[in-house]
Amino acid sequence: MRTRHPIVRTDRAPAGRPRGFTLVELLVVIGIIALLISILLPAMSRAREEAKATQCLSNLRQLGMALQSYANDNKDKVPVGYWSGQPWNGYALVAPGYKTYTLMGLLVETGYTRAAPQAYYCPSQTDPRFMFDTPENRWLDPIPAAGAANWMRSGYTVRPSTNWSPYPAVGSVVRFTRIRNRAVAADIIGIPLSSPDYTVAHHRRVNVLYGDRAVRAVDRGQIDAIQKQIQATSSPGISLYIDDSNPTDKNHLWNAFDNY
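Request: output the structure for the sequence above.
Response:
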């Protein structure tokens, strides 16, 4: 009787030791992971920006509610305008050297948004001058007894309908019902001789609050031509920003928002 000898397999790993990956297999896996990352990262970045843009719109809605409450308590008057003859700085909340709030700073002073001060700031903003409580933009509530050492700015600019310094002339304060269908506040925009990326929080749109408390994302293409004129001018006049006497003319920044 012939004795059978078992076949010995030389390509099997020793008992108890699992077979490992070869170098080629590891390189393939790494390549697949790298490809997935390159596909997913832009999508994740876009998703984060969309989330911030949505939060920005929510902030503007909160400011709209605060302005409505302020108007209800102040005979329909609202603190919108611009500071000291400069139509681009409707973002002022407190001016250097002053011991009083101005423009939307009156909402801070009266406590309409005190529980959520971040509502004054777009989460997509990267310029520390227009972000919440940075070394360049300290949040002052209350204002120090000695007054503000520097500007306290909002991350949003309000409609430049009235000149404040720090308060407007008697009888010139805007009534909320008169701008019911017009733009009231927007992402920081319209600063002369500055990079657009520093004056606009979102690259392709501007988030805008209207007097009826609606919020809209306005395509930047609607206002780019006006913005370029502002950027090229050291001290642009009010005519580039608004013309309330001719509300359908879109050749002014806020009129373009009104007619979007």
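Residues 23-258 form one domain.
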